[in-house]
Amino acid sequence: MLRERSAGAVLLVPLGQQVLVALIAVRGGDVLALPKGHIEPGECPEDAALRETREETGLSGRLLGPLGEISYVYWSRASGSRIAKRVAFFLAAYRAGSPAHHDAEVEAVRLVPLERAPELMAYEGERGVVREALSRLAAGYGPGGEKQFP
Asked: Number of structural domains, the chain?
């Protein structure tokens, strides 16, 4: 079995009183997931998370901190083998960009209310990562990562 390391982010996009999260739509738009991708040689997971998020969503952000890792196994048609994948996720705050500038790997980018994201997403592991982001915000961090109280 082959092994892969990837990184991604829960990118928070404040809009008025609401906090949105950037999700990618793949597989004909039927699957909503977090942006993520391979860690390049010599690249740290944090840099990979920001790069992949920018490439897949058209949005850049700044990291606020780690959210945890998920692991799963999938079948790769390209390599004809099973892949054991580990993905490090980070919380990030929107800085600039437009979803119109996402790359061709994804069909669309959806900005959805953070609290609704888990029910819309396809993968349980990623839903858990978003629930962790929700708990961080509930613990006193604003959508831009600022501490709301000491």
From this structure: 1
